[in-house]
Amino acid sequence: MLGLLLIVACDTPEPAPEALVPAPAIALIDQGGDPFGDAQLLGRPWVANVIFTRCPTICPASTGRMIGLEARTRDLGDAVAFLSFSVDPAYDTPEVLTAYAASLGVDTSRWHFLTGDEAVVRATVSDGLKIAVQAGGGDPAETLHGTHFVLGASGFLHGFYDTEDGERLADLERDLRALVAADRVAD
Question: Model pTM?
Fold first, then answer.
């Protein structure tokens, strides 16, 4: 008797990126003045960057790249979150961040602009997200910070992505989608 071999083509999902290091505990406030932390991220992968609204140099470009990523992943709905941590929290109050988000036309149900106590912000960003920050001594134009995006989920950081490298940004989108797919399979 002859056997029949049936081959079915299917899309194999990308494997989710490995957990690299524990994610920082987040306990800040968002652009609406509401507490924002780990509870709001439960069960959702997230992408983070650092900005400050008075930044004259790299922040507009980094924010533009985040806008592009957010737009390309709208099909994922609220399964993902985008986080922008202000490293100028004395100036970037919730009101300033609300106006900034509005000027960008972003969906603040998915994208949260975070601020809070300066020491807490700095520890979260520098120690937790591994993004270097050097204060500008009161002059925002002299504040320096890293520009990479960070991918987190389920209490861990899963990747660091150079925003100047289009291939790495494509890797970020792929990895974000893989984390969402893995979470949906687990449910």
Answer: 0.88
